[in-house]
Structure formats: structure tokens, C-alpha cells
Amino acid sequence: MTTLKNTPDFEALIRQFHHAEGSALAPLSPEDRPLHGQTLYLASCELEMRFGSFRAHIFQDIIDKHYLIALAHGDITSAEPLHIRMHSSCVTSETLRGCDCDCVEQLESALVLIAKKRRGILFYLMQEGRGVGYAAKARDRMIVQASGDRLTTFDAYASMGLKKDHRHYDNISQICHLLGIRAPFNVLTNNPDKVAALRAQGIPIAATEPLEVEPSPFNLAYLTSKATCGGHNLKRPTVSKVRRAAPPEPVAAFRPHALANARRFIYAASYFLPIKQVDDCALLTGEQYQKITDAHRALILEHTPLRDNRHLVKISPAALAAHRKANPGDTVTDLLAAPYWFRTHVYYDIVTCQEHVVLTHGQPRAGDIPVVRLHSEALFNRFPLRTAANRDKMKQSVKHIITYGCGALLLIYNDGRGAGFGAYATDLMMTQTGQARTTDESYRKLGISYDSRDYDAAMLLLRQHIPNEKIQMVMNNPDSLVKKNEYIAALKAHAIDVDRWIFLDEHPVYE
């Protein structure tokens, strides 16, 4: 019996509304947005990495709404095996510069290897915390730290009623269809579950290659749990001789609760995040600085005394590495290599269904005027770009805060001045291809306003972490205030007095 499904008319109808294989590489028009399964193509643009040019193809899952980026290098459509990595996002290491995991090292080493092979793809998937989101991931970190590392990250997940891994990789085969990829994969991973997931989609696997980094005092516990409990093929954590580093203060776990004066926000977690040094500058207390002997003076290039008997010392990384190798038991080298500790506060917003992150440093006293930065996310700056202006602003802001001694950094997640990463990527595509001359013109064509960021929400959360109304506000430059009427209005509405504007092109001296 002939069915409609088998008739030529039906096949012609299917061809009319389905996008063909490889259609994301050659859309029919500037307005065409190829779709396959739940994966929608949004934009493509060029990214200059430190080690070569990549082309970013941006997609969005129309069911759960998360973005996916295929960072492609070289010819990705030939039949030869293709080096690929499926990489899950990590805001703490890739944006906030945290060093309690190995995510950013795996990201960069995979891109370096792909560049050396001259062809390959890194699939960047917005699946924070093995797919549970940052609020749950932050609760995991809080529980582990509260236990004094007696519980592993997998114990913490189980205590919250979560599986070890909530990620899925269904979009990969759909992206391959839209990009016209048929080659077998050489998969860069330590996780056998990822390889099994690709095979389940019918993607041929030619080989797997590990991506393992040397453990540090700040990620050793996490990497050990991945090796012993998570099934990852990691050898170094179990034989490493580095000493685990504990947070600077005890951490107490708590139940999620709404803020009394802003009940849209659920306070989900608080824990300590070790953030990498900026400009190779170590932050020391007066007591720690006194431990430096003549043997360590050659390691120090500059020394700046700070308020409250603190010291900022610029070190020589090469000299420090050599000294540490020659003197493996020297605890002073640990001080000189130590990161900056920030308390991380994570909130879940029931209005936008997004997480908000506030980093705080130091304990403000009466008379202190905390240094504050509202830092907007720039997703592409998570990658090792040749020019990463937003990442540099983050580093400078951290240095301003630790130099003064107390302050807060609030991360505003949405790219594109609050319009979202899809709008930001489309803007880049339009300006790179001549569809728009400027970002302002592309925003008009997109139908969005200059600034869509929720400054009111930011100020509500900021008030939770400053002791009085006065702050020192870090901004990019004086011109950045001109178009931000909503920003100034939100400061006034929440009675926050900016005692001093710190512009990132200046170098203030704190008294």
C-alpha cells in the first residue's frame, strides 16, 4: 500500500521547509536561519585567537534556550578525521579567572592542539556545572568547602538529589548536519561518557586523546574526585605531591532562601573562589611579608605597601618556578604564588530565571568606601582571543578591589549590553559582512535598544553587600557614562552615592 510518506509530492514538500545539509555555511539569504531538530543557527563571525583565526558558528537550542558555539578552524567538511572537543562552559574559570578547576586549561589546550592540526572544532556548550547550572554548582562548592573537603563534588551532588552528570549532547549531530560535517572524530577528552554519547548519535569515532593538566593546590581535590568517583581518565591527581589549599575562613552551608527586601532573589550559595593573580602580583599581609628572607628578594621585582599593613609584590614567574624546583618545601613560595580569595555569592532570580553572581573581597569597616564594579559578560572573551578587552577590564577591576582592600564585583550575564549573546553575535556578523556599518546600525536593524541591562536588579543585590551608601565605582571611561541614563537612575533610586569614579584608563593611588 502506498502511503503519503513515500510519494514524490511528500518528499518535495519536505525539501521545501527543511534546511539541507551544510546550510549554516551558506544560508540562502542574510535573513535565512537554518534549523535542524531543536538546533537553530543564529550567526557566524571571525575570531582572532592568539594562535590563529577561528570561525565561530553560533546556535541556540529552541527547547531549553541555551546557546552553542562551534569554534571551527580550517576545512571542517573534508572526510579526514577531525579533532574535536565538546567543552562545557565554566564561568568561574573562564570569566572570573578562578583556579579551583581545570576547565580553562582544557579549553585553551584543546584550541592550541586544533590550531596545530590546522583543522578541527571546539563545541562550546552552555552546560554549567555538568548541566545543573551555576546555582546548583555553587551549592556543590559551598557544601564541599563546608565539609573541609571530606565530601567530594559527587557527594555534594548526591546530597542535593542530583545525578553525577545532567549534560546532554544531542545538539552535536544536529550541528554537524547544519555545518555539513561527515568526518569521523578524534575526540579530545578525559571523559569516556562523552565518547559514548557521540557514538549513540551515530557519529563515528576514529580516536580519543586525553587533555590532562598538572594539579594545583586549589583544584587537586576536585580533580581527584573526577578521577576516583567520576570515571575520568586522569592519572596525575592520584600521584600529585602538591598540598591542598584550604579557604581562608571556614564556610557554613545554608538552605536557599529569598532576600527579605527583594524576594525575587533566592540566595542559593556562598563560598570562596581563588582568583588568579593579576600582573603576577601577590597580595600579602604584614605578617606574611615579614616571612620573606634574603633568599626570596631576587624573586620580587616590585613592592608596594598598601593600607592596613598589606603588601603588593610583583614577582618573577620564571625565578619563582626555578626557586620552587630547587626548594620544594619552601612555604614562602606558596605565599608568593597564592591567588586572591573572593567570597562568591550566587542568587537565583525568579523573574528572569537567571543566576546572579557577586564577588566580595575584604571586610568593610566604618569609614571604608568599597570599590565596586558592575561587570558585563562577554562570552567570546572566555576564549584566548588576541585582543580580549573585557577580560582585561575584569583583571583591572579585581586589582583595584584588592589594592584598596574591600569591594564587590557583580557579574551581569547578558552579552550585547543586556540584549543577549544571540544579539551580540548577530551584531558581529552584520558588521563583519557589511550588513551594518556600526553596532548602533545593527542594533536598529535587530530592533533593540542601546542598553537592555537590568541595573535595578544589580543595585538591589549590591545593597546586600555594601555597609553604607558610599562606594567607589569602577567604570570603563568617562564617555561610558554618557549613554547610561538607566545606570545613573538606578544608583539614585537605590540611594547609592558614588564618592569617586575610578576609570580603567587611570592608575589611582590609594591612601
Please explain how this structure is put together.
By secondary structure, this protein is α/β, with parallel strands linked by helices. The protein folds into three domains: 31-239, Rossmann fold; 257-279 and 330-503, GTP cyclohydrolase II (Rossmann fold), CATH 3.40.50; 280-329, no CATH class. The protein has helices at 8-17, 91-94, 103-117, 128-131, 134-146, 153-159, 170-179, 192-200, 220-228, 236-239, 286-290, 317-326, 331-337, 389-404, 421-432, 439-446, 455-462, 485-493; strands at residues 35-36, 39-49, 52-61, 67-73, 82-88, 120-125, 185-188, 205-209, 257-259, 262-275, 281-285, 300-306, 310-315, 340-349, 354-361, 371-376, 407-412, 470-475, 497-503. The strands form three sheets. It has an eight-stranded mixed β-sheet, with helices on both faces. Strands 9-10-14-15-17-16-18-19 form an eight-stranded mixed β-sheet, sandwiched between helices. A three-stranded antiparallel β-sheet has the order 11-13-12, sandwiched between helices. Strand 16, helix 14 (389-404) and strand 17 (407-412) form a beta-alpha-beta unit. The model has no long low-confidence stretch (mean pLDDT 92). Keywords: Hydrolase, Riboflavin biosynthesis.
